[in-house]
Amino acid sequence: MGMWEDAGKQDNLYLLPNDGGHLVLGKSRVWEIGEESFKKEKARWEKILEEKLVVGFFLKDLIKILKKYRIALPKTIFDCGVAMWTAASSIKTPELPQIGELPKIYLSLVKNIKEKQLEKILYEIEFPLIPILAEMESNGIGVDGKFLEKFKKEILGKAAELENKIYKASGAPFNINSPAQVSEILFEKLKIGGGGRRTKTGRRSTRESELAKFKDKEPIVRNVLDYRELMKLLTTYIEPLLELSEKDGSPRSRFGGAGRVHTTFNQTGTVTGRLSSENPNLQNIPIRSEFGAKIRGAFAASTGFTFAAFDYSQIELKILAALSGDAKMIEAFKRGLDIHKFTASNINNVPMEKVTPEMRGRAKTINFGIVFGMGTRQLARSTGMTLEEAGKFYREYFSDFPQISAYINKAKEDVKKNGFTQTLFGRKRFFNLDTVLGDDFLESEMERMAVNAIIQGTDADIVKKAMIAVADTLDSKKIRPILQIHDELLYEIEDDTIREAIPRIRSLMEGACQFAVPLSVDIKIGKRWGSLKIYAE
DNA sequence: AGGGTACCCGTA
DNA sequence: AACATACGGGTGCCCT
């Protein structure tokens, strides 16, 4: 770890991104370079990058350029943008400094990171991750434009039908995309139902959970909901994907075949340590509804390659079990039990075989809710229990899993005392106690965020470590990282190596963190993201 | 015309 | 008074 601190202080290579390429500063000289320079003077750059510490501000784009021209990557980097976020994760878009300020910023960040004991997170997780994100972004993912065009036509046809039915039922055309107009038509003109949730502006809300109450009785409501789903798919996914994917005539993707989309993974976009994905966001492609999940059918593996999706099973609950040391929960995971069923069995004091689907469903809600700091009111609302039942359920849960209860209480105490939370690997999230303490609502909001930051953040640490382990061990020519979706990694693997690659990836992922609970990874493979099948040895 | 916000909804 | 975390992004609508 010493290399970042010891590296020459005046002779580092300082780089800032710029529209034209990259600004470079060395030995107090400033000059501007573009991609051409990297391409033409490959040998010279490799020597420089090998010898110097490369200090920059969001170096991912530079690394993409180096990869493009097959220039060996720098031996050591220090990314000031990523470092600033690691030190204070509420900073998501740090201001780009002047190039002359960079040496000073670099030195103060090194000091800051050391003082906050964030060296491991920054140097062993975040910095090694940068070239992997660069790799995933340049790889992109194949998109079948013809498939999407067909889907689009189907949707437009269905939407037109729904539109007609809705106008007929309401008496006159209006803008179905306007929540205000939908509210007026349904609730004032047609006087559907009563009560219900109100928006800030006093209108009755037309959100899905409100309209769902009437969808069986009122065909117009069902049609509005269906129309919304169609428009959402069209405008949020289908059209942007067509727009953002490489098409004929544009420079072809480096893998040929279908046009590819290249998302941007924002490494500093969250307060918990997760990544985010934008333009397009490939971390929120539909999967739950059957119709929406059809979108995934448009994502195609490269010719000669197959998708392999690796999904950590129940990782957040496992983290909670391991960090809290809850004996009962740990044992359940060790035995590979259905954890929601197991929880239900405990809460209801019935054997596993006697757990009904409803009991399991409620246990699942509380298991997830715990991770968010859910209270009894929300528990009641989301399970249909009365407030009283929910309270009883809640108390029962915590008496069945006393160490989880104690751990959560301790986490809440700690954040109020320290002003920050810490993941298993030392990632920190800071809170401003001055503005929070003394206000009951803000305090419990902070407590919820604190519990979640520890679990979600540890999850993020583990997945990032797994990505690094895979990248360090396996051949990225045959095993291409494509997407990270929080607790899931999507690779495309050359067909002739897939059977040997899968167990290796599995074992690297399952070994990314060793604690009281064994991590396990579910694997699916297929030529389309939409039709992956469970992988059997 | 462009910025800011409300509301809605997709994912983990 | 609020009472379930973390995101990105679409349209509507009000503002300048």
Write a brief caption for the model.
Helices cover 52% and strands 14% of the residues. It has 537 residues and is an alpha+beta fold. The protein binds a DNA duplex (12 and 16 nucleotides) through helix 9, helix 11, strand 9, helix 16 and helix 17.
Set out the fold topology.
Layout: H1 2-6, E1 13-18, E2 21-26, E3 29-33, H2 35-40, H3 42-51, E4 53-56, H4 60-68, E5 76-79, H5 80-87, H6 102-115, H7 119-139, E6 141-143, H8 145-170, H9 179-189, H10 208-211, H11 219-244, E7 259-261, E8 264-266, E9 276-278, H12 290-293, E10 299-300, E11 305-312, H13 315-324, H14 327-334, H15 339-348, H16 357-372, H17 376-383, H18 387-400, H19 402-418, E12 420-422, E13 428-430, H20 433-436, H21 440-473, E14 479-484, E15 488-494, H22 498-510, E16 521-526, E17 533-534
Parallel strand pairs: 1-4, 4-5
Antiparallel strand pairs: 1-2, 2-3, 6-7, 6-10, 8-9, 11-15, 11-16, 12-13, 14-15, 16-17
The chain binds a DNA duplex (12 and 16 nucleotides) through helix 9, helix 11, strand 9, helix 16 and helix 17.
Can you describe what's shown?
- This protein is an alpha+beta fold and about 525 residues long.
- The chain folds into four domains: about 5-115, no CATH class; about 145-255, Up-down Bundle (Taq DNA Polymerase, Chain T, domain 4), CATH 1.20.1060; about 290-315 and about 460-535, Alpha-Beta Plaits (2-Layer Sandwich), CATH 3.30.70; about 315-455, 5' to 3' exonuclease, C-terminal subdomain (DNA polymerase, domain 1, Orthogonal Bundle).
- It has 22 helices and 17 strands.
- Helix 5 packs parallel to helix 6 and helix 7 (about 120-140) crosses helix 21 (about 440-475).
- The radius of gyration is 26 Å and the shape is globular.
- The protein starts with a helix and ends with a strand.
- It binds a DNA duplex (12 and 16 nucleotides) through helix 9, helix 11, strand 9, helix 16 and helix 17.
